[in-house]
Every structure is written in C-alpha cells, then in structure tokens.
Amino acid sequence: MEIINRFFQDTEQSFFLFGPRGTGKSTWIKQHFKNALYLDLLAPEVFRLYSAKPERLRDVVAANPSADTIVIDEIQKLPVLLDVVHQLMEAHRDRRFVLTGSSARKLKRSGVDLLAGRAVNKTMHPFMAAELGDAFSLEDALTMGLVPLVTAAVSPQEAINAYAALYLKEEVQIEGLVRNIGTFSRFLESASFSHGAVLNIADVARDCQVGRKTAEGYFSILEDLLLAFRIPVFTKRAKRNLSSHPKFYYFDVGVFRSIRPTGPLDAPQEVDGAALEGLVAQHLRAWSAYSGDTCRLYFWRTKTGNEVDFVVYGKDTFLAIEVKNTARLQSKMVNGLLAFQEDYPAAQACLLYRGPERIKIKKILCLPCEEFLMNLVPRHPLRF
C-alpha cells in the first residue's frame, strides 16, 4: 500500500508516541527512523528477553554506538524498562528515545512521571481528511472510520468489526483490567449510546446493571486505552447556568459504529448524526494535537437548552461550531450559535451541514462539512 504522509511531526528530543492500535505509529516510526535501534515488545521473543532482564537494554545500547535513536515499540507491555531508559537518558544525552504505546494505563503509575521533562508526550490519531486528499470520502469515513489499519484492509468492514474484539482480547482481557469481560462488553455497547451526547454515568451504570463506581472505572479504562475521550463544558466567564457533565466520544467514528447496536427501534438519522459529530470531533482533536496542543476543545450547553457542539479555544483561536446531519437548513438551527455569540461576541461561529454550498443564515456562515474537514490542516489557522 502507498505510504500516506501524516501531519504528525518529529521532535528533536525524546518522546512518547501514544495512539490507539492501528493508527500508524509503527509505520511512521519505520518510515522516519530507518537506522534506529528498534525493539518491538509485541514480538514474543523480544518481550521474554527484556522482561527477564530489563538491564539488557544497557548492553544493547552500548553495543550500538552509531544508533543515535532508540525506538521501543509498545512500551506499556514492559513499564519496568522505563527505569533503564531513564538511566540511559542521563548517561547518553546525545541519544534520543522514542517510546510508543497504545495504552497509558500501566504507564500512569510508573515511568511517565519519572521521565517528565526528559520525554514529551505526543499522540497519533486516525487519518485526517486532508491527509487522504482525493482519496477521502465522507460517506466511507462515516461508515468505516479513518483508522489506517482499517482503511488499508482488503475488507474494511471485517477489519472494523474485529477492532473492538482485538482490544477486548489483547488489552482488557490479557492485562486483567476487568474481572468480567462479558460485563465490560455490555458496557461498551451501552457507552456507544452516549457517543456525541452529554455523559450521564449513572444512566450507563443502570443500563449495564453495575455500580456507578464500576461504570466510572470502565470509562477510565476506555480513556487509558485511548479508545475514547471526553470534552468539558466551556465555562470561561460564563453568563448563564451551564450543564456540568462532559460529552463523550469514541476516538473513531468507525469504531463507534461497530460497537453501537442497531435494531428496528433505532432511527438511522440518530446514529448518523452522532457519527457525523464524532467525525468532526476526532478531526478537531487531531488538528489541535498536531498543531502543538495550542487549543482546547470544549462544548457549550445551557440549562435552558441552548447548545453549541464544539468550542475551540486557544491563544489566537476562538471558534464555535455546530454540526447538523442534514442537507436542508432551517433558521432555528443557528439559535445556539447566536446565543453563544451574544455571550461571547469575540467568537467566530460556523454551522457544518451535509449540503453542497456555503450559505449565511442570520449572519452565521453555514459550510459543507466535507469542505471544512478537507481544509482542516494542522499548524494552519482555523478560519472560516
């Protein structure tokens, strides 16, 4: 398959590269560090060698003086190696360590804090529309998602259907993160109904028939495995009574669709609307990360029902974005944006929809969603 150039950029210092399985971390590493000393902890023989003797890494590094970059793939498999990495960083300041991981759970309590300041945290996300260029299809993205592992598969549908099962088997079950894998599987489905919605953990707990603390722990596992994220309410200089709960999203719309159960009582437009909003969310999140995390992503919702799907806020950026899964616009659809601009006149506002043309409604610019996504390029100003 043709290698697609990613927006992710290298950094001169040592770094952690986090990202869900299949987002292209290893492909990017092998493309950019062809002469690096490379350790793949997913290889059983490599894992056995270094789990038995972590200090072996010192001997291997010493035997390869020309390797100025040392890559350890899937470092979360063996967090004890981070102690050795830290020692090597102190002893060899001219060498760079690149540590990839598809889960942050084990590292939270071990090496990340130890290496803080020595290694920065970077993230790899699913493809962005602008990375794919002419190969991007909004319809395909909304159905299969944009995980590179899936888009490159001979049968993308089979690949995305197997994706959640892969995580359940390899990350959750093998690592013993939960006691009852069946209950966690039901939780994944229940959580999918909260995708793109204000999260009520108590409701999810009741639906799964588990305690609230258990459900909260499950959501934390999803976030630690990089499978999901929450965005908080925008409350800066709030003039109204706002919602206090965050919104929840799976990291990729294809993963959301593969987990979300559907049946005769499920309206297709409800699932499609959540999918479109999630696609915009994952793009904004990737744009921010690849731009140096100069902006934060929020949403806005008042207790009286006014809502804006996304607020992008940073030093030089203040945007309000509403997403509508429709090709036919109505004037009432911009009411949330107008209310937001009433409170925050400095904010730019835009509505994204499925129609083919730009149009203004009550001074609010309405853009085709595909046009917006294609023009979303990291390190370029986000403007309408």
How are the strands of the largest sheet arranged? 9-10-11-12-14-13
Task: List unreliable stretches of 5+ residues.
Answer: none
pLDDT averaged residue by residue: 91
Percent of residues in helical segments?
40-55%
Computed over alpha carbons, the radius of gyration is: 22 Å
Number of helices: 17
Structure description:
The protein has 384 residues and is an alpha/beta fold. The chain has two domains: 15-123, 3-Layer(aba) Sandwich (Rossmann fold), CATH 3.40.50; 129-374, no CATH class. It contains 17 helices and 14 strands. It has helices at residues 25-32, 44-52, 56-62, 81-91, 105-108, 111-115, 129-132, 138-144, 148-151, 156-173, 181-192, 201-208, 212-224, 253-259, 268-290, 335-343, 369-374, and strands at 15-18, 37-40, 69-73, 96-101, 120-123, 197-198, 228-231, 247-250, 295-301, 307-314, 317-323, 348-353, 359-361, 364-368. It has a six-stranded mixed beta sheet with strand order 9-10-11-12-14-13, with helices on both faces. Strands 2-3-4-1-5 form a five-stranded parallel beta sheet. Helix 8 packs across helix 14 (253-259), helix 10 packs across helix 14 and helix 12 crosses helix 13 (212-224). It is globular and about 70 Å long. The mean pLDDT is 91.
